Amino acid sequence: CVHNSCRSQIAEALGKHLASDIFESYSAGTETKPQINQDTVRIMKETYGIDMEANSQHSKLITDIPDVDIAISMGCNVGCPFIGRAFDDNWGLDDPTGKSDDDFKAVIQRIEENIMELKKRLSESGVLRE
Fold this sequence. Notes:
Elements: H1 7-19, H2 38-48, E1 72-73, E2 89-90, H3 101-125
Parallel strand pairs: 1-2
Helix pairs in contact: 1-3, 2-3
């Protein structure tokens, strides 16, 4: 994401929660926000029991994370920033910021489904975390 405060933060949290046995998850952007979207933090805690802020998640720049093997765009709708490599996939998710809890939950559900599909593909391909 550009600001690394909502969708990519959800993907990082769910990736760690659901797929840490297969891959490591990082989120980052080309700009940062002072804090993660507070609706995201609240809904993730209510839905999954994941306290993103207590788990040290915060808005990060692309340069703040290790080099990655797979890069996924959440769907910028305004032209995703270049992060130093091509994206392997674009999940095409609308930013729920400023929208209803139901909109957030729909995006979170899609991210969960995408993570589980990625986990399955990597598992089946024999690409496991070292």
